[in-house]
Amino acid sequence: MSRVVFLLEEYSMKILLEGLLPRLFPHLPFLCVPHEGKQDLEKSIPRKLKAWREPGVRFCVIRDNDGADCAELKRNLVALCQRGGRDDALVRIACQELEAWYFGAPGALADAFGDERLRGIAAKARFRDPDGIVQPAAALTELVPEFQKVSGARSMARVLPRENGSRSFQVLIAGLVRLSE
What is the C-alpha separation between 6 and 48, in angstroms, rounded? Predict the structure, then answer.
């Protein structure tokens, strides 16, 4: 099986995937390459894809949406991959931010942060659609004041299930299923 190289917007995505992927896809070899934000990632994509010399490697680009038009953002990222000579790169968008994926699994959120009241979070109108939450990281900090992106990603990686109410997380998992076959 070929290795999947993940080009990621930020370090917390790397922490989440390094803990999550071995649980959900135990036979998938992978490497996570974090960047220092959106601009760094986008500038890096064509250069890294052109320069990568590992035979058979597959690429997955993951970036937060942060309120942008998802379709346009994905088109732009796909175009960057194509400029790098890769028409087969998997591009996935976390809507609106990575932390929305956490809201898609309230039980995991409660387990990760040791707060039982988080289990019922999906019943609140504001949190029913995880991908529609405006600034999920800030919303999570309101609920869990000690929340920090990196330690939160580490905690969630241990418990986040494949079944998730976040559509963008479901789309990522479906893409990874195809890459792992």
Answer: 11
Distance, in Å, from the CA atom of 17 to the CA atom of 143, rounded to the nearest integer, reads 23
Flag the least confident range among 14-18, 65-69, 77-81, 98-102: 65-69
Distance CA 154, CA 81 (A): 29
CA atoms within 13 A of residue 42's CA, in its CB half-sphere:
12
Residue 109 vs residues 22, 25, 116: alpha-carbon distances, Å: 19, 21, 9
Closest CA to 94 of 158, 179, 9, 157: 9
For the whole prediction, is pTM greater than 0.90?
A: yes
Edge-to-edge, what's the strand order for the sheet holding 4-8? 30-34, 4-8, 58-64, 90-94
The CA-based dihedral angle spanning residues 56, 49, 90, 16, taken in that order and rounded to the nearest 10 degrees: 100
pLDDT digits over 99-149, tens only?
999 999 999 999 999 999 999 998 899 999 999 999 999 999 999 999 999
Q: Categorize the per-residue pLDDT at 179 as very low, low, confident or very high, splitting at 50, 70 and 90.
A: confident
**Domains in the chain, start-ordered, CATH in brackets?**
4-97+164-180 (3.40.50), 100-159 (no CATH)
Paired residues of 30 in beta bridges: 4
